[in-house]
Amino acid sequence: MSETSKGRFDIFGGQYVPETVMNAVNELDAAYTKYKDDPDFKNELKTLYRDYAGRPSLLYYAEKMTKDLGGAKIYIKREDLNHTGSHKINNVLGQILLAKRMGKTRIIAETGAGQHGVATATACALFGLECQVYMGAEDAVRQSLNVYRMELLGSSVIAVHEGTDTLKDAINAAMRDWAENVNTTFYCIGSVMGPHPYPTMVRDFQKIISEEIREQLMEKEGKLPDCVCACVGGGSNSMGAFYDFISDKSVRLVGAEAAGLGVETGKHASTIAKGTTGIFHGMKSLFLQNEFGQIDPVYSISAGLDYPGIGPEHAMLYKTGRAEYVPITDEEAVQAFEYLSRTEGIIPAIESAHAVAVAQKIAPTMNKDQILVINLSGRGDKDVYSIAKYRGKDVVNS
Amino acid sequence: MNRIEKTLAELKSKGEKALITFVTAGDPDLDTTEKLVLKMFESGSDIIEIGVPFSDPVAEGKVIQAASLRSLSHGTDLTGIFGMVEKLRKQTDKPLILMMYINTIFRFGTEKFFTLCREKGVDGVIVPDLPYEEREEIKPYAKSNGVLAISMVAPTSHQRIADIASEAEGFLYCVSSTGVTGTRSKFTTDFDEFFGEIKKSCKVPAMVGFGISNPEQAKKMSGYCDGIIVGSAVVKIVAEYGKNSADKVGEFVRSLKNAVL
């Protein structure tokens, strides 16, 4: 790679975007570098985190689940309790504060499950910015409640009818919009993906999750966790939950990726299990693709994990063996969705249910004096309809 | 000398502007693409860009997106495209460029790709999602095989133009407007300023593309630089007439050539 190439995680990362947006990417990099350590910026973000988003999020001891699984002591990091219902608000508030400082007046975003879209629409309402959210047409149907939420918040939502009608296609459409309107528009990417500086910047806005886990666990238990589990689509909540522990080698980091109907069926989104190195959406990373580099259609019951790639820092953590990634099928995720609802009275997002499922596998293999933390990235209200449908129940009177 | 450089040198000595046209490989099939390439050369194209279809072409507008997907749905792949180039090389000695996304090169194997370019007779590549900062991804391989990696500048490039233009080889692809490929009814870029900046540091011919769809625009835009690039407008004709599009495309290319002469 070139000496001018920026944002590398081992061989992964970089800035593979059309020339039209290269200056915008560089301006964002410069602005982020300038403001990330700026006291005013940090204070404003900290205040928003506390007074608007409701941080710090709780670290809850899941006693019933711990007893039921009979292994490690289980804690749940309640990102689902943040304002807007997921970890996405952490990143969005940071990016919108930057956009304001850069003088941008229009915000665009992509969304899969709608969590990032809702968070972006929320922050734009708060700061009085024009907001347009791109959502795959299929996702707009499976997450129609979130579409209406975004509209309520004053954003416009464009259902993208192209390719596979899901998250990947929403990103393509957002990138084309950005190329057209780059002078006025800030692209608020929702995950640790895309061209540099996004993977680093989004991780920095999400790393507060692992920083809080460390502090809260030291207070409650006086020690570090032995294992942290999080779901991985593009990988923002998991990077946030892992990051502060990367140098603590005793902490096992486990990502749950979406295995859909099973990794051998061809209907899955298990990028780590089945992906190969490629260059797409601005980054070199692992992707599900064919031998000619055409991006494969992917599938998961979870719109938020239904993506054929993964953030470049995860690709590095996998390659170096620092983190491990486990495929979780739709069936396992739905079972975990129901399990957490009944056991702890917490309805998780179907994305986060993948992390619960992986914890169900790992916790019983651990000792009672060990600690496992599940990052519960979002709440499941948005998924109730589709889970009912999965179980053959029609809960909507039409 | 590379065929691109040779052709552009000849045009320069005659004081003529270049016409570069684009067609998506495999839409509706590779036999038709082969005929279209020959027809376009016969009708006045000086250089032809063959678009390698990609599943997610983020720099393309609707017309080329649709052509790419049609082509892929018929199973077009790089092996087939190299086969077509090999057949074309028995019939023409004019410059051929592959326009493609970096993943289709990288995944195929960058070294193997450029070796095949040399062996089959591809003279250059244009990779819209490979900016200046990442040029080393292909440059050493392209260079060792005598294949030109064409650079792009855009109206948003500003201070980047000097670096990019001074290193450009073959020609500099000047993107007319922000946004993606596809026809435009009007252009809002200040072309005097844009090309003024480009000419300060560019040692190779400068070609303008994105949005040029008729002889009037072709004539006007060619006044600013050394030639024009037309893509979506050709692909649109192919979309309408399919296997029988050669004559229509030929007529259109002829009208463009006459406009820029």
The secondary structure category of chain A is alpha/beta
The tally of beta strands of chain B, per DSSP, is 8
Biggest interface, chains and residue tallies: A-B, 44 and 42 residues
Number of helices of chain A: 16
Number of domains of chain B: 1
Contiguous uncertain segments of 5+ residues of chain A: none
Count helical runs of chain B. Answer: 12
The radius of gyration over CA of chain B amounts to 17 Å
Query: Can you tell me the CATH architecture of chain B?
Result: Alpha-Beta Barrel
Query: What series of H and E elements makes up the topology of chain B?
Result: HEHEHHEHHEHEHEHEHEHH
The first-to-last residue Cα distance of chain A is 56 Å
CATH architecture verdict of the largest domain in chain A: 3-Layer(aba) Sandwich
Mean pLDDT score of chain A: 96
Describe this structure in words.
- The complex is a heterodimer of chains A (398) and B (261).
- Chain A is of the alpha/beta class and 398 residues long.
- Chain A has two domains: 8-48 and 88-202, Rossmann fold; 55-85 and 208-390, 3-Layer(aba) Sandwich (Rossmann fold), CATH 3.40.50.
- Chain A has 16 helices and 14 strands.
- Chain A has helices at residues 19-35, 39-53, 63-69, 88-101, 115-127, 137-142, 144-152, 167-181, 198-206, 208-221, 236-242, 271-274, 312-319, 330-344, 350-362, 384-390, and strands at 8-9, 12-16, 59-61, 73-78, 106-111, 130-136, 156-160, 185-187, 227-232, 252-260, 276-280, 282-287, 323-329, 371-376.
- In chain A, helix 11 (236-242) links the parallel strand 9 (227-232) and strand 10.
- In chain A, helix 4 crosses helix 9 (198-206) and helix 9 (198-206) packs across helix 11 (236-242).
- The radius of gyration of chain A is 19 Å and the shape is globular.
- The model of chain A has no long low-confidence stretch (mean pLDDT 96).
- In chain B, helix 2 (30-43) packs across helix 4 (78-89) and helix 2 runs parallel beside helix 12.
- In chain B, strand 5 (148-153), helix 8 and strand 6 form a beta-alpha-beta unit.
- Chain B has an eight-stranded parallel beta barrel with strand order 1-2-3-4-5-6-7-8, surrounded by eight helices.
- Chain B is 48% helix and 14% strand.
- Chain B starts with a helix and ends with a helix.
- Chain B is built from twelve helices and eight strands.
- The model of chain B has no long low-confidence stretch (mean pLDDT 97).
- The chains are: A alpha/beta (398), B alpha/beta (261).
- The A-B interface holds A 1-6, 14-24, 162-163, 168-169, 172, 175-176, 179-183, 276-282, 284, 287, 289, 291-295 and B 54-56, 58-59, 61, 65, 69, 72, 77-78, 101-108, 128-137, 152-158, 160, 164, 175, 178-180.
